[in-house]
Design a protein that fits this description.
Layout lengths: L2 H19 L5 H8 L3 H14 L2 E4 L4 E4 L1 H6 L1 H4 L8 H12 L2 E8 L2 E8 L14 E3 L4 H7 L4 H14 L9 H14 L2 E4 L6 E8 L8 E8 H21 L10 H6 L13
Antiparallel strand pairs: 1-2, 3-4, 3-8, 4-5, 6-7, 7-8
Length: 272
């Protein structure tokens, strides 16, 4: 891995960590949680501070993202305005199903959670933003794969089988296509302890503001509760899906590009 790629990955991991913790962090805490050497974290934060993406509190010796980070994605957030805040709608879904909920996309052979809201009650699944789950073993992953062509599914199945850490997470073409056929028939994906023992999950695909990146929303439920709650959960997930159908897609016109104000690019002074 080149130094520039490693630096980019660490920068994104840093901001995802702030998103999960939602409070200022010290260099030591960041290094511990990201499993990165402290000198490398210090150098990365120093560069981001110079660029205006993080601020430093001398008294508490902590770093915090600045408003510049939020502004980077504000143009995407505006696309959700017509349907309301995505995070608030996910919170509403969580209150309705009374279980942990999450929104995910495909990232290579994995489903990655963009947002996760943990339900604080006995026997609740933890699913934080940034979490990875194998496409073929997770409800979100299987739901996303149901949108693919059969040829694409077989290609990703081969890749996922190679990545699977356990034999039980590997499937033959026939086994997995039968799972996909069931998902396409009923309109939702369900797992029963496939990834996390004693927990299942139910997921449906939802419309994304980016037509090139499908999304799926799901909920994690202990196996002892999932069958009794399945119909209500599926109904709630489908209602969530309907609520996002009015969101415009991210398809800027050439006129938008021509009228955009020029932006001066910035670079990190040194790769970490």
């Amino acid at each position: 891995m080149t130094r520039s790629i490693k630096s980019a990955e660490r920068t994104l991991a840093l901001f995802e960590l702030f998103s999960r913790r939602q409070h200022p962090l010290t260099v030591g805490r960041i290094a511990d949680e990201l499993h990165v050497p402290q000198p490398s974290v210090s150098m990365l934060l120093a560069n981001l501070r110079k660029l205006g993406y993080v601020s430093y509190d001398v008294r508490s010796r902590t770093y915090t993202p600045t408003i510049r980070v939020a502004l980077l994605g504000i143009w995407i957030s505006r696309k959700f305005d017509a349907a309301g805040s995505l995070s608030s709608r996910l919170a509403e879904l969580q209150r309705r199903v009374d279980e942990t909920v999450f929104l995910g996309i495909q990232n290579g052979p994995y489903a990655q959670y963009l947002l996760g809201i943990y339900k604080k009650k006995p026997r609740s699944l933890r699913a934080e933003s940034g979490t990875y789950r194998l496409l073929t073993g997770s409800a979100v992953g299987r739901a996303l794969m149901s949108l693919m062509t059969d040829q694409e599914i077989r290609s990703w199945l081969h890749r996922c089988n190679a990545e699977a850490p356990e034999r039980r997470l590997r499937f033959t073409n026939g086994e997995f296509m039968a799972i996909i056929s069931e998902i396409r028939g009923c309109g939702f994906a369900q797992t029963q302890g496939d990834i996390t023992p004693t927990f299942g999950a139910i997921a449906v695909t939802v419309r994304s503001p980016s037509e090139l990146m499908p999304m799926a929303v799901g909920t994690g439920v202990p196996l002892e509760r999932i069958e009794a709650k399945r119909d209500d959960i599926v109904e709630a997930l489908r209602d969530f899906k309907k609520s996002l159908e009015s969101i415009p897609t991210l398809n800027p016109s050439l006129d938008d590009s021509a009228s955009a104000q020029p932006v001066t690019s910035t670079k990190l002074t040194r790769s970490v």
